[in-house]
Design a protein that fits this description.
globular, alpha/beta, 5-stranded parallel beta sheet, about 475 residues
Length: about 475
């Protein structure tokens, strides 16, 4: 145990953010560099080493949180890094991007602010990189088996790294021009600088993983040809079919899906553009969707110099604190969340629905018309007399995703079966109806969190390893049927 009285002696402290007026002028991560390390030992000491650590249940990876909290408290960074990597291939990703269901399940959180698990995690891994503790793990021998991984997001990278370390020859196929999937082009630089992805890719290359960019399976290369070329395939292509908004005026210029808008800002940071082809500069921006992707659009618009930013959400405003009846501990509660992007400005409007868009004579969107909504007999219903319009010269749709891409031919070419939600169906080993073809991440689970993607990639790797060799020592932290700890 760390400090038996740590949770009594120390309150919760989180990473310090840079001043808003400073950070909106650049694309660097919003946190003050180095601000965590001086306080993280005390924060780790707040972990109570519970008899039943419910943080394990909150995290699908099964992270050994009390163990690496103890090592962080003692500043044994090498041991902490080893414990961290025992369950998580990419803690620098999750420590920056995960909404931390582990903290919602923290036992201390019953009557106090929970342990800052994410901050401890990211401190450990950043220190490990700094001190050279993170090194390639090259397999002792090769199996002679080959695996193709389709998609280079967190699920695909986790599966690829696990299978490479098991001795298989793995090639990762990515349709974009760089490796990383949504980590690369969906997550803004101010939430995670892409240098963190780059050094992991170099580690994986040193271990033997091969990367093939600019190749879309189904279009550039038939999935059936890929199946002939490899002993097994892992589909980790994500759930990239975005939910649309079929209202009058949707065809107007200036209305984009979030994943049409966000990648261009990231490509500027990669040096591909001097200025993004779609920019919020000087425009009244409306973001439709109140989730994390919507917040990413808000923060991006701030940095591009938007005249105003308004975020719309059809659901009511969440509570500030957990409701012990409807959202009891240790479930993951739906709470009102103020992200770094929201700290930077803009307006958030809840319980509204877009009715139509209005444009100018050149076909450019100028106004968004909306109405308030309320639940009546369990159904969202428009409230008469609440119609109004707001200026909208750039609109981004961030309303989630409905399933994996069906237009590129991958699903049809392999003859894959889908489940009732439109995801690729799989068995207990993450194998599809086609022998030797597996699926991991959002393509099989549906839109989910980064921790679930990595957990699925690790679990699918075990299924592939067992398919290829008959047995496997690789870990499988979750089953395909497992779901988050929610109500």
């Amino acid at each position: 145990m760390a400090d038996p009285k740590g949770f009594l002696n120390h309150g919760r402290e989180v990473a310090k953010s840079r001043p808003v007026e400073e950070r909106v002028r650049d694309w660097n991560e919003v946190y003050v560099p180095g601000s965590l390390l001086p306080i993280i030992s005390k924060q780790a000491s707040r972990c109570m080493d519970c008899g039943i650590p419910f943080c394990h249940n909150g995290c699908p990876l099964g992270n050994l949180i009390p163990e690496w909290n103890d090592y962080a408290y003692r500043e044994d960074w090498a041991a902490a890094s080893e414990r961290l990597h025992a369950t998580n291939n990419f803690p620098e990703f999750t420590g920056r991007l995960c909404p931390a269901p582990c903290e919602s399940a923290c036992v201390l959180g019953i009557n106090q602010p929970p342990v800052t698990i994410k901050n401890v995690e990211v401190s450990i891994i950043d220190k490990a990189w700094e001190t050279g503790e993170v090194a390639p793990q090259i397999p002792e021998r090769l199996s002679g088996k080959t695996v193709a991984v389709i998609g280079s997001g967190p699920a695909g990278l986790a599966a690829a790294q696990q299978l490479t370390r098991a001795g298989h020859t793995v090639a990762v196929y990515e349709r974009a021009d760089r490796i990383g999937g949504l980590l690369r082009y969906g997550i803004p630089e101010f939430k995670m600088e892409k240098r963190h992805i780059n050094r992991r890719i170099e580690q994986m290359r040193a271990e033997g993983t091969r990367f093939r960019t600019g190749i879309e399976i189904g279009r550039d290369l038939k999935a059936t040809d890929l199946r002939k070329r490899y002993d097994a395939i892992v589909i980790a292509a994500g759930a990239t079919t975005a939910r649309d908004l079929p209202v009058p005026g949707r065809e107007l210029k200036g209305i984009y899906q979030a994943m049409e808008y966000l990648p261009l800002a990231n490509k500027v940071q990669e040096g591909d553009y001097v200025a993004p082809p779609i920019s919020a500069e000087g425009k009244h921006v409306v973001v439709i969707g109140g989730g994390d992707t919507g917040a990413d659009c808000v923060g991006t618009a701030h940095r591009q110099g938007a005249a105003s930013v308004t975020q719309l959400e059809i659901m009511p405003r969440p509570n500030d604190e957990r409701n012990p009846v409807s959202q009891p501990w240790p479930t993951f509660p739906m709470l009102y969340k103020v992200t770094s992007a929201h700290e930077e400005g803009g307006e958030r409007i809840y319980s509204v629905s877009t009715t139509h868009f209005e444009g100018d004579e050149d076909g450019n969107v100028q106004w968004l018309h909306m109405t308030e909504v309320e639940f009546v007999d369990g159904k969202l219903t428009q409230k008469p007399g609440t119609e109004r319009k707001i200026p909208a010269q750039l609109v981004t749709l961030a309303m989630g995703f409905t399933g994996t891409d069906r237009e590129n031919g991958l699903v049809e070419q392999l003859g894959l079966e889908l489940d009732e939600r439109g995801n690729i169906a799989r068995d207990a080993d993450f194998q599809t109806n086609v022998p030797g073809v597996f699926v991991a991440g959002d393509a099989g689970r549906g839109q989910s969190l980064i921790v679930w993607a990595i957990a699925e990639g690790r679990s699918a790797a075990r299924g592939v390893d067992r398919f290829l060799t008959g047995v496997s020592d690789l870990p499988a932290p979750i089953r395909p049927t497992d779901r988050a700890l929610t109500v």
